[in-house]
Design a protein that fits this description.
The structure is a single chain. 44% of the residues lie in helices and 8% in strands. The chain is mostly helical. The strands form six sheets. A two-stranded parallel ribbon has the order 1-6. Strands 2-7 form a two-stranded antiparallel ribbon. Strand 11 and strand 12 form a beta hairpin. The chain is globular, with a radius of gyration of 22 Å.
């Protein structure tokens, strides 16, 4: 049954219209059983994929030379690096827009079919509905993070959000919602998912969502909105169920290959970046992780040897973090929850508690015997709430390296006045991205604008 259903999915994708690759062949049988729905939601060629534009635009890597830059073939890899106004330059069928909306289409198809069939209200069908709602929330959030402004309570009711497709109707054209409406829908979907999903992480299938994953997603979403009380509350809910951390001392370390599997110990929900960018793939030779980040790891900090390696050009690259593949992990994990909790504690002046959270994480990444003489872990301390917050944010940048969260952090932190200026140096020219620049919001692909007539973002 599973192989047959996957074949049907491929026919769905191949027999589509040009807009979103979604229109199914009308002769296909609509999935109606638990197995059908599970097979659809388990399809990793549709779900568990994240946009790459934010990772390509963030300040975690550099392209060493003009020759390296000229060797890059893919347009978004070049234009995102320099934060150009037109990052697509005529490119159509942009994966960063198309794939999340494909996920939303399939999630809506499941939800619509559950309504039409009036299926029995069993635990299995609650789980299916919860998974579909979670998938839709996850996709909406990643689209909003890429193609809309950061949430700002004073302007959210007028800032443009994304089209909120809540039906599987192919021909329905939905205008852009506001940022407020967008985040209201994300929170509503994730919250309902939390009420329906099974409690525990599915340890051997972490591509599947759970109650823990829904709470973790809500914590991430609320943090991006700078609603720190709600972010902390949901981090607490998730951690009360699942708080496992990977002991890096127990991981095998290969000089060039990832130490992780797709079911790594602290992963709550697995997703990865869409595989099309030359500047996000592991072991890329045309770019390197910033030396300032690499050099911030002490000799006894196992993250450097577990996460990173150098290629033939001497550039540092990610071997795979919570992922054994070549593309960055973008999912949800315990380390992120602890850092969300720590940041929220620091923001309400609980400095010691905030440092305790950070130390709880870092001690699992420390090998006292990695240096000679041995160096026991020294807990991080803070002299004030402001110092605690600075240290949490510094650690967040290191701990969540190559996870595609830096771009949303830059957007929210600059709204708070952190004034983080990004710079790239290439062939003697310095390129700059100013805080709160409109170029923090990606343009909507031109073919989508042409098809739907929705309003373009100002760049």
């Amino acid at each position: 049954m599973k192989k047959t259903y996957i074949l049907i999915l491929l026919i769905f994708v191949l027999g589509c219209n040009k807009k979103l690759d979604l229109k199914p062949n009308s002769s296909l049988v609509i999935p109606t059983t638990v197995d059908d729905f599970e097979n659809l939601l388990d399809n990793a060629e549709i779900f568990n994929l994240s946009p790459a534009l934010a990772q390509m635009s963030a300040d975690e890597y550099y392209i060493p030379t003009q020759a390296d830059f000229q060797s890059i073939v893919l347009i978004p890899s070049r234009t995102c690096y320099l934060w150009e106004k037109d990052i697509f330059q005529g490119l159509t069928q942009v994966a960063d827009w198309r794939k999340p909306y494909a996920q939303i289409y399939y999630a809506n198809s499941v939800l619509d079919e559950l309504k039409r069939q009036d299926l029995e209200n069993t635990d299995a069908f609650k789980r299916i509905k919860g998974r579909a709602l979670f998938a839709r929330a996850y996709a909406f959030y990643e689209l909003a993070s890429t193609f809309a402004k950061a949430y700002n309570a004073s302007t959210a009711n007028s800032d443009l959000g994304i089209p909120l497709k809540l039906s599987s109707a192919i021909t329905q054209i939905v205008p852009r919602s506001t940022v407020q409406q967008t985040y209201d829908q994300i929170i509503a979907d994730a919250s309902e998912a939390a009420s329906l999903l099974q409690t525990d992480v599915v340890l051997n299938k972490r591509n599947r969502s759970s109650k823990v994953a829904a709470y973790a997603l809500l914590a991430r979403v609320y943090l991006s909105m700078r609603k720190y009380t709600e972010a902390e509350d949901n981090a607490d809910k998730a951690l009360s169920i699942f708080s496992t951390l990977t002991n890096y001392n127990a991981l095998p370390v290969d000089p060039t290959l990832s130490s992780f599997s797709l079911n790594s110990t602290e992963v709550i929900y697995f997703s990865r970046i869409t595989d099309y960018s030359e500047t996000t793939l592991s072991r890329g030779t045309l770019f390197g992780i910033l030396p300032s980040i690499v050099n911030s790891f002490e000799a006894n900090d196992l993250r450097k040897t577990v996460w990173l390696a150098q290629n033939a050009n001497g550039n540092w690259y990610s071997k795979g973090i919570n992922n054994n593949g070549r593309t960055p992990f973008t999912g949800l994990a315990t380390d992120e929850l602890l850092l969300i909790k720590a940041e929220c504690l620091a923001r309400r002046n609980q400095s010691q508690d905030a440092m305790d959270m950070v130390n709880r994480l870092l001690i699992t990444r420390w090998n006292p015997n990695a240096s000679n003489p041995a160096k026991p872990y020294q807990p991080i301390t803070a002299s004030s709430p402001a110092d605690a917050l600075d240290k949490v944010l510094q650690e967040r940048r290191k701990s969540l390296l190559w996870r595609s969260v830096r771009w949303t952090d830059l957007k929210r932190l600059n709204l708070e006045g952190r004034n983080i200026v990004l710079t790239r140096n290439l062939n003697g020219t310095t390129y700059t991205l100013e805080p709160n620049s409109p170029r923090y919001v990606m343009p909507i692909p031109d073919d989508e604008i042409g098809f739907t007539g929705i309003q373009q973002n100002i760049r």
